[in-house]
Write a structure and sequence with these properties.
The protein is an alpha+beta fold. The chain is built from 18 helices and 32 strands. Helix 10 crosses helix 11, helix 13 crosses helix 15 and helix 17 packs across helix 18.
Length: 626
């Protein structure tokens, strides 16, 4: 075969088929590499675990093979190999025909879905033309209505070499027509082997299905959450600087211990993948299943290269209908899943593949809610670019940083949502919160017309309650961002620590204000305190409004004076511009007590009217006193 073309996309092909139908022998003839790597495999002549080989097709496409075991006892290993792979070489021996593991492997491939398949009728040299034709008819009949229907069927023999050129041509045609792998998205390397090399450290191998990984990259292994650095990369025993999808990759990781890693882990960029132990999916039973699938069974989920015990809950029935159903699946331990990932469900007791599914929500809400079927129906029909809008609509608000790990995309614009600080907020939620906050503020203004507004902390509490009622997260950061957004937009207005509706105007009852000022003035140099004024019937907001309007001057927490009295104090300070004035002299000149004189002078200091030098006060050249 030819040398690989560097600009062509890479592909990985998984084998499938019954035990002893010649999968490994065929791979040896195609690649010159024996995929059986274990001593026990060579001794028994039986593939037990995953094997790997590679070659370059005549078109220049470089392909890797994952050779899987065909024996029923090793289906879990088979699933780890075929799970991340979208191209299949399905093997059926012409002399034996269709067998039980042919059926189960077909069921697995069918529910996982494929982008392409080639069916090899092996051991064609052992049968006559009539038996070969019967075998091909049987294969086409068995695959009718499945993902393999219409696939090329090639009669061949690893022993004699018959049909191998035709098989290579069929593989080449399949690869050329396969979708081009997504190289710019999130990298995801499905780990199927972990080992150590003396002097190098931990090595993981697996299938890279998307994105790129480069030497020197910082990566994260999930679900353990370990950070590591890529020291070196290999594909097909060749050192490379950058690994591209879809390819078999060996990555030497610095900072990750062998004991902490396992088959089923995923290597990606830090924080881009979020493991989950509960997900929602569309499930459908494998064809011709002889018994119903109920919720009481003991199940195992196989997704990517991972395997987990699982409990299943169907949303619309207690059993899985033939047409399929939405389900919530709880796993015994977390794995990494993406929207639209396919997986296999096996019944543990029967050791049987019973269903396959498509992940719809890898991170569902804790409680499904009454609209769960409607929500999952929308997700089932959604493309990748629709997911962000759906997610924001479902949750009401989502952190910008969460979009990529939750949906796989991080757009600059989300349909029917607004960017509020570090959040995307659904327009419906934004309107609902704004309406609730405004209603609350207007009620407050009606009750307290003389106040400038409400404390911002109280407004935030209202916004948080509105978010909670709307089903959105009442996160403090989101609450603060929403209130700031409404202020910036002009819906609300802020005065210091107070917030009001933008159309609010303080209503001052002139007669009452005049009566209040008269009560203070009547006290002369020792007017009543605020507490005393309140005790005689003056409302706190009226006193505050009078101070805000300049009718009174607040000089302390419990003291107010008339502007005229303050002006007398300012005049006394300015009259002593050269020599300064003491507190005692000012007190005596005003005829007041220290109770009033001390806070009055401190107020003038704060206002910049006076400056203190020792025990003396001097004017600063300003008459600002309020």
């Amino acid at each position: 075969m030819s040398d690989p073309e560097p600009d062509l996309p890479l592909h990985v092909i998984a084998t499938a088929g019954h035990v002893d139908h010649g999968k490994s022998s065929l791979i040896v003839r195609l690649t010159g590499i024996d995929p059986d790597r274990l001593a026990e495999e060579k001794r028994r002549g039986l593939t037990i675990d995953l094997g790997f080989a590679w070659c370059t097709l005549p078109s220049g496409h470089e392909i890797g093979f994952v050779d899987v075991p065909g024996h029923e006892r090793f289906v879990r290993n088979m699933l780890a190999g075929v799970g991340p792979v979208r191209l299949v070489l399905f093997v059926v021996a012409a002399d034996e025909g269709w067998k039980p593991q042919s059926e189960e492997h077909l069921a697995i491939v069918d529910v996982l879905g494929v982008d392409g398949a080639v069916i090899a009728l092996t051991k064609a040299d052992l049968v006559d033309a009539e038996r070969l034709a019967d075998a091909e008819r049987e294969v086409r009949e068995r695959t009718r209505g499945t993902a393999l229907e219409g696939s090329a069927v090639v009669a061949c023999s690893a022993a004699s070499g018959r049909g191998l050129e035709e098989l290579v041509d069929a593989l080449d045609a399949m690869v050329r027509s396969a979708p081009r792998p997504e190289e710019e998205g999130r990298p995801r390397l499905f780990v199927d082997r972990v080992f150590t090399i003396a002097g190098a450290g931990t090595v993981v191998t697996g299938t890279l299905t998307g994105g790129r990984i480069a030497v020197g990259d910082e990566v994260e292994v999930a679900p353990p959450g370990l950070r590591a650095r890529v020291r070196s990369l290999q594909t097909h025993r060749r050192r490379i600087e950058v690994a591209r999808p879809v390819s078999r990759v060996a990555a030497n990781l610095v900072g990750a211990e062998r004991s902490s890693l396992d088959r089923g882990d995923v290597v990606g960029r830090p924080a881009e993948w979020r493991p989950t132990s509960t997900f929602e999916a569309w499930l459908r039973p494998v064809r011709a299943l002889s018994h119903p699938v109920g919720v009481r069974g003991a199940f195992t989920v196989h997704a990517g290269a991972a395997e987990r015990e699982a409990r299943v809950r169907f949303y619309e029935a207690n059993r899985l209908p033939e047409a399929g159903a939405f389900a919530r699946i709880r796993l015994s331990a977390p794995i990494v899943l993406d929207v639209h990932d396919r997986f296999v469900l096996r019944e543990s007791g029967r050791r049987e593949t019973v269903a396959g599914g498509i992940v719809l929500d890898p991170h569902p809400p804790a409680r499904p809610g009454a609209t769960v079927v409607e929500r999952l129906t929308a997700r089932r029909g959604a493309g990748r670019t629709d997911l962000t809008a759906l997610l924001v609509a479902e949750r009401g608000a989502v952190r910008v940083a969460d979009l990529l790990p939750l949906t796989g995309v991080a757009p600059s614009v989300v349909s029917r949502a607004s960017r509020i600080g570090a959040w995307w907020v659904a327009e419906t939620i934004l309107l609902e919160v704004a309406e609730q906050v405004l209603d609350d503020l207007r009620a407050f203004h009606a009750e307290h017309p003389m106040l400038e507004g409400r404390e911002v902390a109280d407004v935030r509490r209202t916004a948080g309650s509105a978010l909670r009622r709307a089903g959105a997260p009442p996160d403090p950061d989101l609450v603060e961002a929403l209130v700031e957004h409404l202020i910036g937009k002009g819906t609300l207005a802020r005065q210091g620590s107070k917030v009001a509706s933008a159309d609010h105007r303080v209503a001052l009852p002139d007669a009452e204000i005049e009566r209040l000022v008269d009560a203070v003035a009547a006290g002369g140099p020792t007017p009543p305190t605020i507490a005393e004024l309140r005790a005689t019937g003056f409302a706190p907001e009226m006193i505050e409004a009078a101070c805000r309007s300049g009718a009174l001057v607040r000089i302390g927490p419990d003291l107010v004076l008339t502007p005229g009295f303050v002006d007398r104090a300012v005049a006394l300070v300015r009259a002593a511009e050269r020599e300064g004035i003491t507190m005692s002299a000012l007190r005596q000149a005003l005829g007041t007590s220290r109770k009033y004189a001390v806070p009055l002078m401190e107020h003038l200091d704060r206002a910049g009217v006076t400056r203190r030098v020792g025990d003396l006060r001097f004017p600063r050249g300003t008459d600002r006193v309020s």
